[in-house]
Write a structure and sequence with these properties.
Blueprint: H1 4-21, E1 62-67, H2 72-88, E2 92-97, H3 101-111, E3 115-121, H4 125-130, E4 137-141, E5 147-152, H5 157-171
């Protein structure tokens, strides 16, 4: 009898852990879903004197890819993003997250640059507004400036074909 309470607590914790392990961490929901995307009031990586012009994207469906040169999965997805965005005519914009601009530019020269433009988020404040958990993360933003989908992790051929592209086509 004296072991009944600890055993019940242990079993309850084991069940909760088991349920948690069955969840897909990449299926992380965002509070921003169907809400206006946060403002990206940051300078461009390519030209720090120019701000990211989010208002110019009204009426267009686009992807926001949050990346950094220090992120190995980000380096791996860059050539794929170049290929997919050109092939499927989907504009991809970047948010360079907590990175050093010179290292970021050097990576894009070597790995390829899929971005129409990339904003610099050196202090991570814009990333916080988007609820960034880690890089890379990719968001589909519709023509009204609303977040329609969030993908946590690198973009692969499967992710592009089965998740991102269908959302892009659905909201165009």
């Amino acid at each position: 009898m004296r072991f009944a309470l600890p055993l019940a607590i242990f079993l309850a914790l084991a069940v909760m852990l088991g349920l948690g392990l069955q969840r897909d961490p990449r299926a992380l929901q965002t509070a921003l879903l169907d809400q206006p995307a946060p403002a990206i009031a940051r300078p461009l990586l390519e030209d720090p004197q120019q701000p990211f012009d989010q208002a110019a994207l009204r009426g267009k469906v686009w992807l926001l890819n949050v990346w950094a040169s220090w992120c190995a999965p980000c380096r791996q997805e860059l050539p794929l993003l170049v290929e997919f965005s050109r092939r499927d005519q989907v504009p991809v914009y970047g948010l360079n997250y907590k990175d050093q601009p010179e290292k970021a530019k050097a990576l894009l020269r070597v790995a390829g640059n899929p971005y129409v433009a990339s904003a610099v988020d050196a202090d991570g404040r814009t990333g916080m507004d988007f609820g960034i958990q880690g890089v890379p993360e990719t968001f589909v933003i519709d023509g009204q400036g609303r977040v329609r989908y969030r993908h946590l992790g690198p973009v692969t051929a499967e992710v592009w074909q089965q998740k991102l592209l269908p959302v892009v086509k659905a909201v165009q």
